[in-house]
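[step 3/7] inverse_fold.run input=structure_tokens len=266
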């Protein structure tokens, strides 16, 4: 059974509920990589199904947002057509975007995806559209707002505890802060076991972001945009824990309320 939010977490969820009950549309960003299926070996947009399951199990309608040419107008039109955004995990963010040279272990750049997600985040923040960033999504949010990253976290914390191995996620404890959406949504578990698969992390936190969860070694595990009603990102992979859909349920509730408010305003 999926844990039910209790205590102050209910206050966060209830604050975003509305009476329409309609399933909101949740846009989820995707990879764009070389892919093989059958006789085909082509560049393809794809995303692990667990992301889609996390959205639909929480009551949302998932639509895919593959990397493509983008400017502020295009990003604004995309964001205006959805009720919430999920920026998914994936390859490392290009270090040139935060003024650093590439570390030998940093992934090859994906400038199309970087530009796409940066534009979507910017449009979502400007419009107040609810969003969640996951793993790379947290890092992209921080870079979009002017922060920097540790390009290879094991050199900072002295261990590969977050890196996972051969597709197996690593288990780590996250310590929640005293305030913010993430601590309130997960209020009954102040120390939360999570699934990690990353070798990079936030270094300098961007202005306008509040850190709402960390590991015991200080690694930033959750941030929230202070200027919007619901905009957060986590370093772990909540989509990999289908038994606990609270973060996605909170996003869907925020999206439903946002859609309702837009309809009323229109």
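[step 3/7] decode complete -> sequence:
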């Amino acid at each position: 059974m999926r844990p039910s939010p209790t205590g102050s977490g209910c206050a966060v969820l209830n604050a975003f509920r509305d009476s329409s009950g309609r399933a909101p549309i949740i846009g989820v960003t995707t990879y764009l990589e070389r892919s093989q299926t059958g006789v085909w070996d082509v560049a393809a947009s794809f995303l692990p199904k667990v992301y889609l399951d996390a959205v639909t199990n929480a009551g949302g309608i998932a639509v895919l947002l593959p990397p493509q040419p983008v400017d502020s107008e295009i990003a604004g039109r995309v964001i205006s057509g959805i009720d919430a955004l999920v920026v998914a995990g994936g390859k490392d963010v290009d270090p040139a975007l935060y003024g650093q040279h590439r570390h030998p272990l940093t992934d090859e750049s994906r400038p199309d995806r970087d530009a796409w997600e940066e534009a979507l985040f910017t449009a979502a923040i400007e419009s107040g559209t609810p969003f969640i960033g996951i793993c790379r999504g947290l890092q992209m949010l921080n870079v979009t707002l002017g922060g920097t990253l540790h390009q290879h976290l094991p050199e900072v914390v002295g261990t590969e505890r977050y890196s996972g191995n051969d597709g197996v996620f690593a288990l780590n404890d996250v310590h929640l802060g005293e305030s913010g959406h993430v601590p309130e949504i997960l209020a009954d578990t102040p120390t939360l076991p999570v699934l990690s698969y990353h070798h990079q992390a936030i270094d300098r936190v961007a202005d306008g972001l509040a850190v709402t969860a960390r590991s015991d070694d200080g690694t930033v595990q959750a941030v929230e945009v202070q200027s919007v009603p619901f905009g957060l990102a986590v370093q772990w992979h909540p989509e990999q824990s289908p038994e606990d859909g609270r973060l996605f349920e909170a996003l869907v509730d925020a999206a439903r309320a946002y859609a309702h408010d837009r309809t009323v305003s229109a």
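[step 4/7] annotate
Confidence is low (pLDDT under 50) at residues 1-15.
The helical segments are 8-16, 49-57, 72-80, 111-127, 136-144, 154-157, 181-185, 246-265.
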